[in-house]
Amino acid sequence: MPGTTVDLPRTGRPVVVAPMAGGPSSVDLVVAAGEAGALGMLAAGYRSPQDLVGQIAEVRSRSEAPFGVNLFVPAPASCAPERVDSDTAATGVSDAQGRDRADRVAVAAFREMLTQEAAALGIALPVPDWHDTDHYESKLDVVEAARVPVVSFTFGCPQPDVVDRLHLAGISVVVTVTTREEAVGSVDAGADALVVQGCEAGGHRGTHRVADTPNQLDHLALLPLLTDLPVPLIAAGGITTAGDTRRALASGATAVQAGTAFLLADEAGTSAAHRMGLSDPRLSSCVTRAFSGRPARGLRNGFVERYDAYAPAVYPVVDQLTKPLRAHSAREGDLDGVSLWAGAGWRAAREAPAAHIIEALTP
Ligand SMILES: Cc1cc2nc3c(=O)[nH]c(=O)nc-3n(C[C@H](O)[C@H](O)[C@H](O)COP(=O)(O)O)c2cc1C
Predict the structure, then answer these.
(1) Which residue owns the Cα nearest ligand 1 atom 29?
(2) Mean pLDDT score of the chain, rounded to an integer?
């Protein structure tokens, strides 16, 4: 990577163990990845800045291998409203400064729908927080101060001044892209490398605009559209075998980023309900906004059946609203109420030490 500290292949293997927020990317997994010659990634999403500080320190106390941290770029609209009118408390946003009225109406209707299920379980739903940035600025301060070798971004591209700040701290900046337009914009902003995320990828699609309908291009279709760009490309989506890695490298990638292949790894922090879902032969793959308002690939369960048609494209507000229901289902071990994020290659995921999975992905 030009002007940066980590050359991915020189970590030993052309494999990045994907950041997976919500539990799977444990410190154990990141350490195991680094020790096996891959690049491990801490997932800062949904985590407090203080937690992130602790995780970075723990990784460093256990391994000298390079590693990265992944951040969610907040959507501009989610930072906008400053004032909440008392008469709009149900939607948490004022008329004067709020989002598009259609979003507010859709969120209120969706909240009403979820409230019926929540009330039956004795769960109160939160008032939406339209200011939610997932502590983006504080987390930038954390990774800058810690001089983490690699910082990757999803859901958007950091502003050029942020990229400059991280470069000054010796940090490689990686941006997740799903289209040529996003890729060109990210290179223009100063990105050192791109994660090229295809439609097979598990978890959220990293589209830079929340409302965009993601394309149907897999990583092998996206790579040739980007090989003229002057940065390394890291292919992501459905990579579960050494053959997949070989094909991605032959199509112009410098490395691959695999997530789903590690969901059942011994070191992964994947919840018991999620692990059970991944082993359930009755489930099938789907893309849905039902859990968060952003399109994400996972396994089709009862929650998706009930809410896929109704969840508005408003992230992270929809994520906030569904969170207590998901947490309840996780506690109960109820597969039908949790998000079972997984890529199209989910049936290939297997229980094994991460080092074995990395070995199996290496050509
Ligand atoms: C459970 C899960 C959580 C994820 N969380 C994140 C995340 O926090 N940040 C991110 O950039 N990508 C996240 N992803 C997407 C991965 O970075 C990557 O694009 C994807 O796992 C590649 O596809 P695969 O799952 O088929 O290997 C997640 C994927 C999964 C399966």
Answers:
(1) 203
(2) 92
